[in-house]
Structure formats: C-alpha cells, structure tokens
Write a structure and sequence with these properties.
Mean pLDDT: 85
Helix content: over 70%
Number of strands: 0
Distance between the termini: 10 Å
Largest sheet: none
Number of domains: 1
Length: 206
C-alpha cells in the first residue's frame, strides 16, 4: 500500500470535515442574524428554515467523512498486518532454504514447509481481499456525499432569493450564500480527489 496516497486521502477527508463544520457555523450564525433582523424590520423570512436544512446537510456530510476515515483506518491496519505476515513468510522461507542447503540435515521438512507456506498464502490472500473490499466500500459513500452536495446547491441559492426580502441586509446574506457555495464546491473537489486517489491506490495494490 502506498502510504503517501493514504496521507493525501486522509488530508482530503479532514478538509471535508472542516468545511462541513464551517457550513454549519455559517448556518447557525445566519439563524441568529435573521432572528435579529426580522424582529427589527417586522418581516418574516424563510432563511431560518434554510439554515436548519443546511445544518442537517453539513451534519450528514461530516458523517460521510467519518465513515471514509474509519474505512481508511481499517485499511491501514489491515495493510500493516499484511506487511508483517509477508515479512514472517519471507523469514520462514529463508529458514527452510538454509536448512535444505545443509549437508547434515536430519529431517525432511518439505511437508512442513509446504503446510506453513500454504497457511501464509491463505492468510495473505484473505487480508488482501479485505483491503480490496474496504477500498470498494469507499465508492458508495463518495457517491452519497456527492448527492448531498448536489442537493445543497439549490438550497444555498435560495439564500440569495430569501435575502432579497431583508432590505439593506441583503449584502450580508449574499456574501453568506457565496461562502456556502464555495464550501460546497470545495467539498466536491475533495471528494473527486479521494475518488481518484482511491483508484490509484487500488491499482497499486492490485
């Protein structure tokens, strides 16, 4: 396993979590601002409901990021086990090779050697299959996170529409909408990077 790729995926996941938190923070702040503004101007606004939906989406995106991180952590653990087994297998092979080259060998260990080698091969194959399954399981989570981003885009745009009813405060919420839109695009880019890195990782371990 290429751990430099793993580190890149990990950083992308962290970025998604941080950006999801920023979306939630913006939405919470907007709720407070809307409450103060509407009480002053005596108008109602749908921004509070929009903010609640954005908070919900940001929570789901963070949940997806946590799922990606967990799978990545499990893959690293499995890869570490794989490397240990491969090293032990190599040491066992060296022992049997050295023993078979001795002139005074007392026992024929070919059956034992074959049995141990088979056990190692089975365990390694099993671990590699699990690692492959973990990588495959990243795909649907990435797809689900992308769907959340697509769902969030029209909601973010509706912030601009609703802000038109807030008079002189429109600039604040227009800027908020832009920040939210940029955050969604950033998450989409990170998800794309994870998807590409995952493919590269699978190819390198295949």
């Amino acid at each position: 396993m290429k751990f430099d790729i793993i580190n890149e995926i990990n950083e992308a996941i962290k970025s998604i979590k941080d950006t999801s938190f920023q979306i939630r923070l913006c939405a919470l702040n907007s709720q407070i601002s809307v409450s103060n503004i509407t009480s002053e101007i005596g108008k109602t606004s749908g921004l509070s409901t929009i903010s609640e939906e954005l908070i919900h989406i940001s929570n789901l995106l963070e949940k997806k990021a946590n799922q990606l991180f967990l799978i990545l952590h499990e893959s690293i653990h499995l890869s570490t086990t794989e490397r240990k087994l491969a090293r032990n297998q190599s040491l066992q092979n060296k022992f049997f090779q050295d023993y078979s080259n001795r002139d005074n060998q007392k026992f024929n260990l070919r059956e034992i050697e074959s049995y141990i080698s088979s056990k190692y091969n089975d365990e390694l194959e099993n671990i590699r299959a699990k690692i492959s399954t973990r990588f495959e399981s990243l795909k649907p989570i990435i797809q689900e996170a992308n769907k959340l981003c697509k769902y969030a885009k029209p909601i973010v745009f509706s912030v601009k529409i609703e802000s038109a009813y807030l008079g002189e405060n429109i600039k604040v919420f227009t800027q908020l909408a832009e920040e939210l839109a940029n955050s969604i695009v950033k998450i989409e880019m990170e998800l794309k990077q994870i998807q590409n890195l995952n493919i590269e990782l699978q190819n390198s371990t295949g």
